[in-house]
Amino acid sequence: MGAKKASPDLLNSSFSFKSLKLKTKQQELLLRVSILGLVYVLAFIARLFSVLRYESMIHEFDPYFNYRTTLYLTEKGFYEFWNWFDSESWYPLGRIIGGTLYPGLMVTAALIYWTLRFLRFFVHIREVCVLTAPFFASNTTIVAYFFGKEIWDTGAGLVAAALIAICPGYISRSVAGSYDNEAVAIFALLLTFYLFVKAVKTGSLSWALGSAFGYFYMVSAWGGYVFIINLVPLYVLVLLITGRYSMRLYVAYNCMYILGMLLAMQIRFVGFQHVQSGEHMGAMGVFLLMQVFYFLDWVKYQLNDTKLFQTFLRITVTSAILVGGIALGVGTASGYISPWTGRFYSLLDPTYAKDHIPIIASVSEHQPTAWSSFMFDYHILLFLFPAGLYFCFKRLSDATIFIVMYGLTSLYFAGVMVRLILVATPAVCLISAIAVSATVKNLTSLLRTKQKVPQTGSTKGVGSSKSSSKVTLDQSQPFQKNGAIALLVGVFYLLSRYAIHCTWVTSEAYSSPSIVLAARGAHGNRIIFDDYREAYYWLRQNTPTDAKVMSWWDYGYQITAMGNRTVIVDNNTWNNTHIATVGRAMSSYEDEAYDIMRSLDVNYVLVVFGGVTGYSSDDINKFLWMVRIGGGVYPVIKEPDYLVNGEFRVDKGASPKMLNCLMYKLCYYRFGELVTEYGKPTGYDRARGVEIGNKDIKLEHLEEAYTTSNWIVRIYRVKPPTNRL
Amino acid sequence: MVKSTSKDAQDLFRSLHSAYSATPTNLKIIDLYVVFAVFTALIQVAYMALVGSFPFNSFLSGVLSCVGTAVLAVCLRIQVNKENKEFKHKTVVTNLRGIVAMFVIAV
Domain named STT3/PglB/AglB core: which ranges (chain A) (predicted)? Predict the structure, then answer.
């Protein structure tokens, strides 16, 4: 090395280039680590808008149940938690919580809480719950980096991590305060997929073991694990069909399936579904198919003689198909293998829920996705996705086939249900990252070879064929360097617009805790409506401890968690008839409703009313769903009774049944005397934009107990029956 | 037709037998273990058919652990088989230890 220093310029530059190369590797490592660190922090802080604007509280409805269970777990311990029977919800039936929830999220939060306490950080469990989702979002970006590295290279991994850190599709369900199963589940999903792809690539048992444990974590966290247990066998099937089967695939899938299945059955809620439910049969079928396939392959290898092998093949294939067919037929016909449940069946047949199961159809998250939602949640990733698919098909390997399948299937399901955009987000980010990384790599290599040309032009053997081809290109198109620079600037502009869009979307659309509402006052100042919590705390402090509250099922979890009172129905919606009974009570005349309420031992009724504030997610707007669900079980409730010419109205032209049903009376009691807007008559409903029809409401069996300061939540007490004398 | 198929079957059986006896002994031991595991699983299924499936948990755990050990043993066999070109190892001895360790942990 030292002797070469005295040589001419070329070798001198090559020496410094070589020492530069060593430093470049270290520099590259430093760059990668710092980028990942920044992305990690970014993913966390991008989700903190609502904590900074309002306060550190739990959002929405479902997270309140998760919070309550986590609180119970940390106070009472595992044994009590696992065997918990809750008598405070679904009165008078109760709910076996220990066996009907996915414990992954609660156990994770409890473990973090106990670790922090062990380190003498005495935080409240609520803080841990609020910040669990952003923490796991950061971890997801790290997994995305490794996954991208597996599929393509480190550059794609870095871009994938950065894209997924701020992608609105993921942020929508993992913002701080959104303490829901998906927060942990997406991390588990990506981890399982990464470990499985790694297992298929290396064929080692350790990675397959890892993916089995990842699958176990996913099963404990979310019901969406059904996606994994169907995608992985589908992927194996595709590999078998395209002839890419290998011993590595055998090792990876078998280990993951058997161990994963055994582990998954430890969760009581899942139970025996892996061997009994139709949704899991695909995995078992592929498992048996693999055994047959590889057995045949081994026999073929042993025999080395085609004619004998053909006979053997004929015998085994026919017998295998016969046995498999008979088993499946007997199982399905006898009802031992249960058919696909409604929730998942509606994914394959989107019209199923609307006709047969109104409760599933009524949830707004289950509606089909509009194009605007796709654009809102993905922005530039929408057109980078096909570009990435192109690159994947150019370099097909086991890993890229997997990500292509994941992307296509998840996008199909995202089109069927808005909620599933979340599941498609990692795939879309990864594939788009491949497009971005490959494009940028090509462009920058175009730029760099231009600089190398004068130095390496003299030595023939040094330059690779790629650089020599670039040399010839250079001579024909002198503006290529400028074109490359322009395109690079374009790419960076697109990515910066993406970042701006994501931040705006997070700040405006996805950071509102639905329990606290905000609006702009007349002078532009911000007004906060904290009516929900006001009502729940009134309930907690002013009602007897064994009081039972009837409300629509949306508010059940919040009432039990914050109001600490027994409810009739809540968000778990496991008993359709019970919900239909409540729906019937809400849509009947006051006398019939009173009979139903007495039969359920109801003491208080809670309704949400948005007429004074213009809040549009109130019970009157949900009323038709109450009628439909009630009518689905009790034919005495007919939807056309409440409509006028097919139209839902609350003003003078509304149907008489609508004007006198319990929900109408409870929402609009004393509302007829109120002036809500300047220049409008009294009793003007700001949410529907009409003057109400029945202003003179008299309640016979109920009396008003409490109305919050903005009239959003109204609570009524059920009067005991009058003396018969 | 029947005669030719039975003759084919006999030829098949004989060539399979001769080909199989060529495999090294350690692989044969693993194969024996696999057969034992599958046999245990079949016995459990027969028992369940006779006596009834309560409690289902124990039946499932029994059968699945048998199937699991069978599958893992097959994976071990695949990785140990020198004729398998995909698992190139630097030195067979040290990697053998790693593979066996993984198998034990998995079981």
Answer: 548-606
Structure tokens at A38: 């920044």
Please report which confidence band the pLDDT of residue B1 belongs to, taking 50, 70 and 90 as the band edges. very low
Is the pLDDT at A461 greater than 60? The verdict is no
CB-based contact A303:B15 (threshold 8 Å)? yes
Closest CA to A253 of A297, A296, A295, A211: A211
The answer on pLDDT for A433 being more than 90 is yes
| Per-chain mean pLDDT for chain A | 84
Tokens 């970006």: give the residue.
A141
Q: Which residues pair with A604 in a beta bridge?
A: A549, A717
Q: Which of A263, A292, A321 finishes a domain?
A: A292
Under a CB-based contact definition with an 8 Å cutoff, are residues A347 and A416 in contact?
A: yes
Q: What is the pLDDT of residue A459?
A: 42
Dihedral pair phi/psi, residue B96, rounded to 5°: -60, -40
Q: Does B64 touch chain A (CB under 8 A)?
A: yes
pTM summary value? 0.84
Q: Examine residue A512 and state whether it is found in any structural domain, yes or no.
A: no
- Given a cut of 50, whether residue A60 has pLDDT beyond it is yes
Helices and strands in chain B, H and E counts:
4, 0
- Domain extent at residue A188: 181-292
Optimal mutation site among A253, A254, A270, interface B, most CBs of chain B within 10 A: A254
Q: β-strand A702-707 against A690-691: which pairing, if any?
A: unpaired
Contact predicate A66/A181, CB 8 Å: yes
Q: Which chain A residues are closer than 8 Å to B57 by Cβ? A: 265
Residue A215 lies in a domain: yes
Q: Taking a C-beta distance cutoff of 8 angstroms, is the pair A669, A620 a contact?
A: no
Nearest residue of chain B to residue A206 (CA atoms): B102
pLDDT in tens, A699-720: 888 999 999 998 999 999 999 8
Q: What is the pLDDT of residue A430?
A: 94
What is the C-alpha to C-alpha distance for residues A127 and A119, in angstroms, rounded to an integer?
Answer: 16
Closest partner residue to B102 (CB to CB) among A205, A254, A311 is A205
Residue A155 reports pLDDT greater than 50 = yes
The Cα A215–Cα A240 span in angstroms is 22
CATH code at position A570: 3.40.50.12610
Q: What is the pLDDT averaged over residues A178-198?
A: 92
Contact indicator for A536, A562 with CB cutoff of 8 Å: yes
A417 against A161, higher pLDDT:
A161
Cα gap A251→B78, rounded to integer Å: 8
- CA nearest neighbour of A144 among A493, A437, A488, A491: A437
Helix (H/G/I), strand (E/B), else coil: A703 = strand
Chain B residues 33-52 with a CB less than 8 Å from chain A: none
**In the listed set A292, A310, A332, which residue is the last one of a domain according to the structure?**
A292
Listed in sequence order, the residues at least 6 apart from A24 whose beta carbon sits closer than 8 Å to its beta carbon are none
User: How large is the average pLDDT for residues A124-133?
Assistant: 91
Number of domains within chain A: 2
CB–CB of A513/A177 below 8 Å?
Answer: yes
Torsion of CA A692, A696, A700, A702, to 10 degrees: 50
CB-defined contacts A:B, below 8 A: 71
Contact criterion met (CB < 8 Å) for B12 and A209: no
Asked whether the beta carbons of A547 and A566 are under 8 A apart, the reply is: yes
Residue A424 vs residues A137, A191, A291, A377: alpha-carbon distances, Å? 15, 15, 31, 11
Q: Report phi then psi at A644, rounded to 5.
A: -120, 115
Environment class of residue A566 by beta-carbon count within 10 Å: exposed (0-12), middle (13-18) or buried (19+)? Answer: buried
Which of B1, B14, B59, B74 to mutate: most A Cβ within 10 Å? B74
Nearest to B84 among A247, A299, A315 (CB): A247
Q: Would A556 be classed as within a structural domain?
A: yes
Lowest-confidence region among A227-241, A544-558, A560-574, B6-20:
B6-20
